[in-house]
Amino acid sequence: MNKILLLSILLLISCSEKKQSRTSPEENIESEQKETIQSIEINSAGGQLGYVSTFRMTKDSIIFNSDMTAAPDKKTAFRNPLKKGEAEKIFEDLDLKDFNRAVEGQSKQPFDGLDEFITIQTEKKDYYKRNAYDNKTWMKIQRLKSKYIDQQ
């Protein structure tokens, strides 16, 4: 009787441990998606004219800077506030899991091209990709940049 009771307790403990491990953050498929995005940033650099730009969206503002070493008078810089909750809505719509799976493209700078780097900063870590144009989330972020810069 004691052996059966001991065996039953061990069986219950092992079953409950397996159930707990399935919900651990390391194995939870949706754990990346639950991360809170703090900011997104797009950095562009390259070309014979020496173009560089930085677009950054934080929870409260859009910050944009661009410069061209061959044409210093083409320098642009602005900072615009965002409506309360606007960035959070955008950030919630971004798929971190998809972005993390993006395949990075090769550098285009050796061919007088422009390389683009996107960084998504969360409270846990940064996600970074270069020239990942075949990714839906990458392209969604690119459209955001266009939308906010075109408003200027």
Give an account of the 3D structure.
This protein is α+β, with helices and mostly antiparallel strands. The chain has one domain (37-150): Mago nashi protein, CATH 3.30.1560.10. The chain has helices spanning 2-22, 86-93, 96-100, 136-150; strands at residues 37-46, 51-57, 61-68, 76-81, 114-122, 126-130. It has a 6-stranded antiparallel β-sheet.
How would you write the strand order of the largest sheet? 4-3-2-1-5-6
What structural class do you assign from the helix and strand content?
alpha+beta
Query: Can you identify the CATH superfamily?
Result: Mago nashi
CATH architecture, by name, is: 2-Layer Sandwich
- Topology as H/E string? HEEEEHHEEH
- Average pLDDT across residues? 82
- Which fold does the CATH topology refer to? Mago nashi protein
How many domain modules? 1
So how many helices? 4
User: From the alpha-carbon coordinates, what is the Rg to the nearest angstrom?
Assistant: 23 Å
How much strand?
A: 25-35%
Helical percentage = 25-40%
Multimeric state of these chains? single chain
Number of strands: 6
